[in-house]
Write a structure and sequence with these properties.
GpX-like; alpha+beta; about 70 residues; single chain; 2 strands; Phage tail protein X; about 25% helix; elongated
Length: about 70
């Protein structure tokens, strides 16, 4: 089920995607497709802008890599 969030001061669509999905790869474009007219607001969203985040199955994050044992 899609979720609607509101932008806070200085928010961008990629920041919203990162907070909600945990990444931005191919997600920002899908959010723009799901929200017609959102791109016309500019790169920094006005405070309080409602953005609908569609259900997207994101792959689980990979295991953490350590440089030293």
């Amino acid at each position: 089920m899609a979720r609607t969030v509101r932008a806070v001061q200085g928010d961008t669509v990629d920041a919203l995607c990162y907070r909600h999905y945990g990444g931005t790869k191919s997600l920002v474009e899908r959010v723009y497709e799901h929200n017609p007219g959102l791109s016309e607001l500019g790169p920094i969203l006005p405070m309080g802008t409602a953005v609908t985040l569609p259900d997207i199955n994101t792959p689980p994050s990979r295991a953490r890599v350590q440089l030293w044992d």
